[in-house]
Amino acid sequence: MSHFLAVCFLLSCSHVKAQQDPQFTQYFDNVLYVNPAYAGSREALSMIGIHREQWVGFNGRPRSSNLSVHLPLIKNLGAGATFINDVVGPINQTMVFGDISYTLKFKNSKRKLSFGVKGGVNIISVNTSGLFTHDGGDPELMNSVRNRVLPNFGAGIYYHTPIWFLGISSPKLLKNSYTESNLSTERRHYFLLGGAIVKLNHSWKFRPTTHFKFVAGAPLSMDLSTAFIYSDKWWLGVMHRWQDSFGGFVQFQITSQFKAGLAYDHTATELSTYNRGSFEVLLNYDFIYNNSGIRSPRYF
């Protein structure tokens, strides 16, 4: 089954043009991964780590880890860095990107508009030695790829107020080739992410978010998520990935600076027969040295 999954992935790179980057159920806490304009927006040195085990029980399943660090700098500048490792069958990608943002602050208002750019490399390896296909002369499966370095850059815009936000971005604008044959290439991904926080009463808040993903030649992907927040401590939510999966998550604000979360989603496609769902663990810590003017906890 791992060979089948790996071949499907390679074909998707060159023909179907499906999404190639890892996806996360707790995307709403991982904005820097797709949008560099988010850098510094939490008004503190912020670190977040997410690990995802997708399609547990399915050999060759995707496994993704992400670590993001960002902080505000002087004169409306923000900076950050993102480290991602993504493994799918014989394909191993390690992405290292740096982010810079600039924020415009509106007078007499808490509204902010940020612009950001990111740059870095995607180091990819493809081990095709264990794959078996009916077409032995397939040029995509003739040779393995070892530590191929693909430089790239991206850009984004992020508008936010204390009660809602909206961002649009494309984190990798160059269409690099995975192999020497130039048949398998990186595709541009476009992301639209938005959400809001609504106070229901003294104890409860409601936070809906949505995440649209556009890739040329692939169907539109849409994630919908809602979370109910109790006493700014417990986050209880459900999610739905359009025509793909559904699930839920729970997060706990351990201190005003430290939050942990778990998520589970189950595919609604034919793959559900072959796996036990996908799991995520999240850790987020904000190094708040001066609480003056800094909102804690943060809702986005």
**Strands side by side in the biggest sheet:** 1-2-3-4-5-6-7-8-10-11-12-13-14-15
Rg, rounded, reads: 20 Å
* Percent of residues in β-strands: over 45%
The CATH topology corresponds to: Porin
What can you see in these coordinates?
The chain is mostly beta strands and 300 residues long. The chain has a single domain (2-287), classed as monomeric porin ompg (Porin, Beta Barrel). The protein has one helix at residues 2-16; strands at residues 45-53, 63-72, 77-88, 91-105, 112-126, 145-160, 164-170, 189-196, 198-199, 204-215, 221-230, 234-241, 245-253, 258-267, 278-287. A 14-stranded antiparallel beta barrel has the order 1-2-3-4-5-6-7-8-10-11-12-13-14-15. A hairpin with a 2-residue loop joins β3 and β4 (91-105). The relative contact order is 0.18. The model is unreliable at 1-18 (pLDDT under 50).
Structure, briefly:
The chain has 300 residues and is mainly beta.
SSE diagram, text form:
Layout: H1 2-16, E1 45-53, E2 63-72, E3 77-88, E4 91-105, E5 112-126, E6 145-160, E7 164-170, E8 189-196, E9 198-199, E10 204-215, E11 221-230, E12 234-241, E13 245-253, E14 258-267, E15 278-287
List keywords for this structure.
mainly beta, disordered N terminus
